[in-house]
Design brief:
- There is one protein chain.
- The longest helix is centred in the first third of the chain and has 52 residues.
- With about 150 residues, the chain is of the alpha+beta class.
- It has a four-stranded antiparallel beta sheet.
- About 20% of the residues are buried.
- The protein contains three helices and four strands.
- It has a single domain, classed as 2-Layer Sandwich (Fructose-1,6-Bisphosphatase, Chain A, domain 1), CATH 3.30.540.
């Protein structure tokens, strides 16, 4: 009699491999949209930090010069200015001085073409010299409460 001996080679069978790939695909299908939404929310911190940084530089500039800095003075490279710019280029900073240099409004708007441009909910953030904060979505509807929350 001849005995049939089964020899098991180490490794995975094709069925096991296909099942594993299917499971990974299902997990990614659910996890990836949640991760992308979280990244959009996390990147909003750059806009908020940029505006608070501008407010800090404006306060310092006003103490030294008895007026608020223009956008050119605020974004000038050191030693002429603080060299304000976004680190990751998700947002664009703009600054408007009020009449008679009595105040300012700093605005951080999503940079078109950047990864953050998919964020339709919080497209623009503003902060003024009396710490009044606003935010709007891409359609320019007020969304301050949702965008400036600090959970």
């Amino acid at each position: 009699m001849r005995q049939n001996m089964l020899v098991h080679a180490p490794g995975f069978s094709l069925i096991e491999l296909l099942i594993s790939i299917t499971i990974i695909g299902i997990i990614l299908a659910y996890a990836l949209p949640a991760l992308q939404a979280h990244l959009l929310t996390a990147r909003r911190i750059e806009a908020i930090n940029l505006l608070y940084d501008a407010a800090s530089h404006q306060a310092r500039f006003r103490l030294q010069n008895h007026r608020y800095a223009s956008f050119a003075e605020l974004t000038a490279s050191p030693p002429a200015g603080p060299g304000m710019a976004t680190r990751n280029r998700y947002y664009r900073l703009s600054l408007t001085l009020t009449a008679g240099n009595a105040g300012y409004v700093a605005q951080a708007t999503v940079e078109p073409g950047a990864a953050q441009a998919r964020d339709q909910k919080c497209w623009s953030f503003t902060l003024d010299n009396v710490n009044r904060r606003t935010a709007s979505n891409k359609a320019a509807d007020d969304n301050t409460r949702a965008c400036w929350r600090q959970d």
